[in-house]
Amino acid sequence: MATFLYRLGRGAFRWRWSVVLLWFAALGAAGFGAVSAPAADDSGTSFMPGIEAQKAYDLIGERFPGADANGANARIVFVAPDGEKVTATDTRAVIDDFVAETGQGSQVASAVSPFAADAVSEDGSTAYAVVTYKVAADDLTDSSTHALENAVDEARDKGVTVEVGGTALATQPAAGGSAEAIGIGIAAIVLLITFGSLAAAGLPLLTAVIGVGVSMAGIIALGSTFGLSLTTGTLASMLGLAVGIDYALFVVSRYREERSRGRDPREAAGLA
User: Fold this and answer.
1) Are residues 57 and 122 in the same domain?
2) CB under 8 Å to 59, separation ≥6 — which residues?
């Protein structure tokens, strides 16, 4: 393997402009495939047969046939006003109304009352309810999310403290956002300070960005064929940028080291 990589490095240096054009051609081909391919279906999640996670998903489907294991959920915590309990008549009525209202949505699979599920704290100050949906969070309609938000606002207006968790109202993360751009900018500053050279600092970033671009475009192009989840792209971009920059940094550092020992550029590229 070491001999192969050595020859690959020397060959890539010798035909460097052809290699650059080849990578840009790969990026263009992957980009064209991503634009032309149908969108991936992210309506379900599956694991390897027999593992605990898949067994848990299958069990949810058996015990709660109206709910999808991938469906969105809202976990609502109710806190009674100071000095009162959630079991008090007025507070309990507010919670019962909330559960009844949220359970009427067309996309709702179930709305479980904390009193039916025995989800009330020992001191009676806090209760916990769960609303489960038939579809994933990305597939929830505006009317479904607005209905949940309105029910929360109504309960709060009646003096009950309400906090919502879960995926139903959570903002879904997406790859390629500002976080990645900020990370690349910080990496560029650190590399520029470390190397003191714009070319040496920019090369690891350029190779990482092109590599991630080819990978992301390939994931989008093949997503529908292989049933890849939308979160695959997020994971790929995170790992691709981290690993791509790190290993390119190692290669550049080794190249500069070999050049400082008097090696010619082609030989230094092969050893790096």
Assistant:
1) yes
2) none
